[in-house]
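To the team - nicotinamide-adenine-dinucleotide complex, inputs and output below.
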Amino acid sequence: MDRISDRIRKAAEIIAKAKHAVVFTGAGISAESGIPTFRGKGGLWEKYDPEEVASISGFMRNPRAFWEFSKDLLVKVKAEPNDAHKAIAELEEMGIVKAVITQNVDMLHQRAGSKKVLELHGSMSYVDCLKCGAIYVWEDIEKIIDNPACKNCGSELLKPRVVFFGEPLPSGILSEAMEESRKCDVFIAIGTSLVVYPAAHLPFMAKDHGAKLILINAEPTDKDYLFDVVIHDKAAPTMKKILEKVKELRG
Ligand code: NAD
Ligand code: ZN
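Output:
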């Protein structure tokens, strides 16, 4: 007997005993907040060419194409944190989760209340003018997104602090993420296809150091075999149920 409800219980039992759980998230955790993923059905790569809108060379050629694309990613949806982001923040407050490692740039973990968030791909929260060095916050840019230009020097080269294709990951954040993955006793991956490297190495590091591994993802991944508990379902309702069970178990 191995129904989803049994797996949710098993995941909750593991998490309830954890002293240092680490959560690792990808685009799938924000899908239920209305933010489309890149790959897969309905993903943004069906509509946009990643080379044009998300590579550093494409951005330098035509920054407007990126900002047009980011409307679909962030502006049109008015995304709010969902039950999965909220459950993770609550598990941190309970002293169970010690860090969230995310590939997302949408700032939803912080908005849900998570304190320790390692953003492997940066975030949209700050935007730099590459010409004069002026710094903007996301809210400033959101207002001028149809016509983004630096208020100080007029340049259109306004670059968010996200990692574009062709750029290295921030090395300090990456080493912190690897350290967290090595020292955690429970590693929970949510909404990620686990294909993008080097991020896809992290579950191996956790496993090598004896952690228990839990995966919540809508579809199977080619790394499901690594995980002690695998739940193929939506992140928000699953994390809500797991949190309820963890609270029950902890009394
Ligand atoms: P990904 O490789 O992380 O894959 C997304 C996974 O989420 C898929 O396997 C899919 O089955 C799963 N999924 C979809 N809906 C789900 C749900 N409701 N619950 C649980 N799982 C669900 O992501 P990608 O789209 O291929 O993007 C690649 C890179 O771009 C990653 O770094 C990603 O995080 C980033 N990205 C970020 C955002 C964001 O900031 N919200 C949006 C799109 C892409
Ligand atoms: Zn400027």
